[in-house]
């Protein structure tokens, strides 16, 4: 976290990325039907500190470059819990929601003006009506969406729709994911945005400074990794019984977006883990699944 008295400019790593790496991504090949369905993603989204972490920036941007550039992104973030189900404003230049505090003022000045996504909003509304009433709102993108996407697609040239989480029930979230599965065949990247572990109240200053991984974080992460490797989705639904709980997730909104991702997959399969390290002692586990 940048501090006003810190001599290192806030988001210095992101500035270097925009200068040195991002320009080359303008040639990122756009998805075509010949590429087949895009995978569904679960990512640990970070927050403003991501912009000060060159390694994490490289991980997320490299992941995006390894996939075709999507026609659009539909993202479900831990930071929008709202029922009935709702989607963000589809208009071009949707504003950002700065849903954090205590950070350098620069992070409240970021912009990420994505293109019009009306066509995607219409697709989402059409896919969900028999089970879920979808409300189109004027809400902007919160940091669970715009922070990682501004690294993955730094030119803000991919349309984005954010969808709320109307529940934490794994079965219902997986059903929503299944109904969104057809979007992947149209070049839409379906993303669940949460965090591998999120026990912020239980981190000490020493843990943060040293990036020390507390036992509850590593134990819960190992349990998640094992369940994913075993393709044991049923075990994942019993996350409340996992080792490290409730410290790993004192509230569950950063874990449950995973069930949208799993539901959007073609079927049970071993995910491809892309990121499996830690930041401030919290698991950054992120994966994709076809």
From TrEMBL:
Pfam family, one: LigB
Record key words, sorted: Dioxygenase, Metal-binding, Oxidoreductase, Zinc
The protein's required cofactors: Zn(2+)
Domain Extradiol ring-cleavage dioxygenase class III enzyme subunit B: 55-270
Coiled-coil annotated residue ranges, if any: none
InterPro entries per the UniProt record, alphabetical: Extradiol_dOase_DODA, Xdiol_dOase_suB
Gene Ontology molecular function: any one: dioxygenase activity
Record family assignment: Belongs to the DODA-type extradiol aromatic ring-opening dioxygenase family.
Protein name: Class III extradiol ring-cleavage dioxygenase
Classification of source organism: Bacteria, Bacillati, Actinomycetota, Actinomycetes, Propionibacteriales
